Amino acid sequence: MPAPIRLRELIRTIRTARTQAEEREMIQKECAAIRSSFREEDNTYRCRNVAKLLYMHMLGYPAHFGQLECLKLIASQKFTDKRIGYLGAMLLLDERQDVHLLMTNCIKNDLNHSTQYVQGLALCTLGCMGSSEMCRDLAGEVEKLLKTSNSYLRKKAALCAVHVIRKVPELMEMFLPATKNLLSEKNHGVLHTSVVLLTEMCERSPDMLAHFRKLVPQLVRILKNLIMSGYSPEHDVSGISDPFLQVRILRLLRILGKNDDDSSEAMNDILAQVATNTETSKNVGNAILYETVLTIMDIKSESGLRVLAINILGRFLLNNDKNIRYVALTSLLKTVQTDHNAVQRHRSTIVDCLKDLDVSIKRRAMELSFALVNGNNIRGMMKELLYFLDSCDPEFKADCASGVFLAAEKYAPSKRWHIDTIMRVLTTAGSYVRDDSVPNLIQLITNSVEMHAYTVQRLYKALLDDISQQPLVQVASWCIGEYGDLLVSGQCEEEEPIQVTEDEVLDVLEGLLVSNLSTPVTRGYALTAIMKLSTRFSSVNRIKKVVSIYGSSIDVELQQRAVEYNALFKKYDHMRSALLERMPIMEKTASNGPTEIVQTNGETEPSVVEPKHPPPVTQPTNQATDLLDLLGGNDMVSVIQTTVPTKPASAGGELLDLLGDLSLSGIPPITAYNKNGLKIDFTFERANPNPNIAVITIHASNSTETDMTDFVFQAAVPKTFQLQLLSPSSNVVPALNQGTVTQVIRVLNPQKQQLRMRIKLTYTHRGSAVQDLAEVNNFPPQSWQ
């Protein structure tokens, strides 16, 4: 059989291929020749064939059939064969293949070989792909080589020990004695690998961390020698002595000094030296400075040192390299909470980064800018951020608008400034704001009584300029409906009042109803605003005409509103002024309080709910926590408990009749619970404004001879639903079925999924407290489809 071609010739041949198919043909032909050679047990050219196979493997072609040949080369006595064999084993084998276990004995023999280079090959291979079984078998040999005086072997043994510890952490103790003298070594290779080994041990074991803290002075001494030493050609990189070792030592000092006062104190001086003496003109120096900054921030360093670290990051922001600027912004974002004042000094530089062309830098600069906003700089920072909002890419607008809203709500110097800022956001990025921005702004305007005339005038002007920003149009429609009389009367004191007639205002709102830019929700706001103006303007006949037109609209939502409003005009005109009076001032509280954002005819409006509580109920303190566990862990949504105002007896029937002709019925009731004399029935109806909301009324009855007191009904639903639990009619369930306790549950089911509910019942019966849980899964399909 002719001698196979050399590796160099194979590379040259493959590079002449003009197409992928031609290259594949060459590879297949050569692989066939190599297979034939392997079958014939050709020892002469095995090394050459495996080398070619490794090249093909690097090109992405399959080379697994050479695994056993690698083992044969490892077992050879020739160094050239061993070198290719071990290289092939590292590339073609891993611990998922059982073949690698056949190498264990060869590696053990080579670790005890008389030639250091063969020992080095064995250490490299074990450190690269040794499995946990191999590491257990060979850890003793590695530990022995770690103690040798040969620096070539010690550095390789230290790296191999790192791999052994990662695979078998319980063997860590074995290497502890060998680490004592490692840092005394003069050879930089041994020092570097020793620091890597110590770092690995400290990260994996708190005991090792405590043990190695006594080495801090020695590490500080090594780092000082590196900084103060003169030019050393074998370690110099861009004028800095062994930056790789410096970075590794700084990383180890960071681990050792974290949460330890003594260690941090010992390294404060050297960190200051590194920070002030390192050259920053080259990237090498910047890498060391960055590690120094991270170390200063992680340990218990002095305040002056932390300011120095933040100043270094501030200098990074002026660097021309985008990567360095990005790293600086990310690091400042992490430290802004702990060292806010020091970061504030670089505010102007950070704001300048908002103009950077790189999107990653812009995003980090935006996040950091919002983190720097406080009561003192709110005006200046908002000016910059609003300018950024005007000019930034669409992908930034949503996050930037949300950030401006939150910052304005937290630090607004005045209500007028707050309103102006949010209106500026709505005019520039209204399509990108969060869904809750409209009700939040409505609530803000409602509470700012002295700003009503100014706000409605500003919003009216904004409507004349642009009706494409739907959130802005919705807020403006609501305000014009509420405060249209102030707009027409020209009572604005904050700026020059404009002269507007009632017809002009109605023209604008009617324009919104017919505009193609208006969404169905916006049209609902506009129609409601027109209806409200019937009690504020004198043009009632025109308003009646507009409302009646939309009674036959193809938009069901709009049609329903118009029909309801027509009913107000025709049947209940004497109630219209009371129903459409101005919204009262609202207090913003948590979702479980008496104030809530309620859905009114499909239009989200804040409203104050006057709590009318039944007699106090004694409940366990951990009741809310228990309820959260009803559906187990993350499959829960919180339950909003609200109260409803009691309705005047005289008008109650008339109000209920407004929607009487439109309600959906025909959903069969179910019995959700029937135990120990307590029976819970569910009846259903659909909320007209939103077909996704099911209104469930519970009826609790008691067939026993004794009243059930302190009755509390609670419910929980999966996360895909939202549940609102209104107040019960009473907390006493009368005996002998002489009465029922009713309570209303509203369930929002936007995805039309099958309804599931867990209920919790708590009551006192015959002097003893009773508590029970139940699951309701038999909801009729009509209630959720």
Task: Characterise this structure.
With 785 residues, the protein is of the alpha+beta class. Among the domains are: 435-580, no CATH class; 670-783, Gamma-adaptin ear (GAE) domain (Immunoglobulin-like, Sandwich), CATH 2.60.40.1230. Helices cover 54% and strands 11% of the residues. The protein is built from 33 helices and 13 strands. A hairpin with a 2-residue loop joins strand 6 and strand 7 (678-686). Residues 665-780 form the GAE domain.
Keywords summarizing the entry:
Immunoglobulin-like, three-stranded antiparallel beta sheet, 33 helices, 11% strand, six-stranded mixed beta sheet, alpha+beta, elongated, 785 residues
Question: In whole angstroms, how far apart are the ends?
Answer: 79 Å
What's the average pLDDT? 83
Shape: elongated
Quick one: how many beta strands? 13
Segments where pLDDT lies below 50 for 5+ residues? 590-664
Topology readout:
Elements: H1 7-15, H2 20-39, H3 46-59, H4 67-75, H5 79-92, H6 104-111, H7 116-129, H8 132-146, H9 151-167, H10 188-204, H11 206-212, H12 216-228, E1 236-237, E2 240-241, H13 243-257, H14 261-277, H15 283-298, H16 303-316, H17 322-335, H18 340-344, H19 347-352, H20 359-372, H21 378-391, H22 394-411, H23 415-429, H24 437-447, H25 452-465, H26 470-489, H27 502-514, H28 520-533, H29 540-549, H30 556-570, H31 573-579, E3 595-600, E4 603-608, H32 623-628, E5 639-641, H33 649-657, E6 670-675, E7 678-686, E8 693-702, E9 708-716, E10 722-725, E11 741-748, E12 757-765, E13 768-776
Parallel strand pairs: 5-10
Antiparallel strand pairs: 1-2, 3-4, 6-7, 7-8, 8-11, 9-12, 10-11, 12-13
Helix pairs in contact: 2-3, 3-5, 4-5, 5-7, 6-7, 6-8, 7-9, 8-9, 9-10, 10-11, 10-13, 12-13, 12-14, 13-15, 14-15, 14-16, 15-16, 15-17, 16-17, 17-20, 20-22, 21-22, 21-23, 22-23, 24-26, 25-26, 26-27, 26-28, 27-28, 28-29, 28-30, 29-30
Subcellular location: Cytoplasmic vesicle membrane; Endomembrane system; Golgi apparatus
Region (Disordered): 601-620
Keywords: Cytoplasmic vesicle, Golgi apparatus, Membrane, Protein transport, Transport
